[in-house]
Amino acid sequence: MGVCVRIPATTANLGPGFDTLGMALSLYNTLEAAWSSGSLEFEVTGDGAELVPRDATNVVYQAMHSVFEKVGQASLLEERGVRIHIHNNVPVTRGLGSSATAIVGGLWAANVLLGQPLSEDELVHMAVEIEGHPDNVTPAIFGGIVVSGMVNGKVYSKRFSPPPEMSCVVAIPDFQLATKTSRKALPPAVSHADAVHNVSRSSLMVAALVEGNFDMLCNLMDDRLHEPYRMPLVPGMKDAIARAKEAGALAAVLSGSGPTLIAFCKERADRIGTALQEGFQAEGIGSEIMILSPA
Ligand code: HSE
């Protein structure tokens, strides 16, 4: 018996909601897993397949292993063996939640293979623990827009539906930026004024997204906690964002820890995509444009 899991790409932060807000996008990785006859068999296809390890260091395998371990069956995975096929459409290490797809896919597949011994809450908790922040894994699990945070060691999350008229344009530059590197660029402390700036915007933004109030939304997505520090790591970011807004985007921000940029819009998605691409081009950087929906 086997299992097939489909996991969406995600965009984290949504500007000012650092480590708190995230949204699922209409671009999916799939993971198929089945018992094999005592060996670990890997097939990886799709985007960046050559970059993905095909052994026990693979993130999908490690996530699966942690489920087996948690239910006291750590040796079963090695003994029975498993066949894993990963098909990636989400670009690797570009700020669209590729590692969250691997973690969530691995946890869910392992739980199904074992007859679902763990609850959804337990799996959510494990996913956040493995990833280290909740804002990619929770929308990858629940879909839609998710507000989430760790409170006294417990994951709290609330899902809501994105405004139906909103679409998203992503510009994926042709270089990678590891989340670890991008997090290292952040300062250990921020000013009280910058904290208030972000708290007010991210709180109001949730209300604007719930109400579909685009007039309000377009004034709220500027950030002071991570984007200014990450900008030097993403050449062309400032210019591309300015061009996207001129072309009619409601807002444009860094997707997760970058280097992908994401613009939110009601119309003119093609024009906005070209504007983002031109911003990268001005720095000699090529980029792929995708028009996606919230998922
Ligand atoms: N909130 C995380 C960060 C998302 O910005 O580092 C990483 O995808």
Automatic annotation (TrEMBL):
Gene that this sequence comes from: thrB
Enzyme class label: transferase
Protein name (record): Homoserine kinase
GO function term, MF aspect, one: homoserine kinase activity
Pfam name, any one: GHMP_kinases_N
HAMAP family: Homoser_kinase
Pathway(s) per entry: Amino-acid biosynthesis; L-threonine biosynthesis; L-threonine from L-aspartate: step 4/5
Keyword tRNA-binding attached: no
Keyword terms: Amino-acid biosynthesis, ATP-binding, Cytoplasm, Kinase, Nucleotide-binding, Threonine biosynthesis, Transferase
Record-stated family: Belongs to the GHMP kinase family. Homoserine kinase subfamily.
All copies of domain GHMP kinase N-terminal, residue ranges: 58-144
Catalytic activity: L-homoserine + ATP = O-phospho-L-homoserine + ADP + H(+)
Cross-referenced InterPro entries: GHMP_kinase_C_dom, GHMP_kinase_C_sf, GHMP_kinase_N_dom, GHMP_knse_ATP-bd_CS, Homoserine_kinase, Ribosomal_Su5_D2-typ_SF, Ribsml_uS5_D2-typ_fold_subgr
Function field: Catalyzes the ATP-dependent phosphorylation of L-homoserine to L-homoserine phosphate.
Originating organism: Effusibacillus consociatus
Enzyme Commission number, as recorded: 2.7.1.39
Taxonomic lineage from the root: Bacteria, Bacillati, Bacillota, Bacilli, Bacillales
Major localization listed first in the record, in broad terms: cytoplasm
Domain GHMP kinase C-terminal: 205-280
Subcellular locations according to the entry: Cytoplasm
Residues reported in the UniProt entry to bind ATP: 91-101
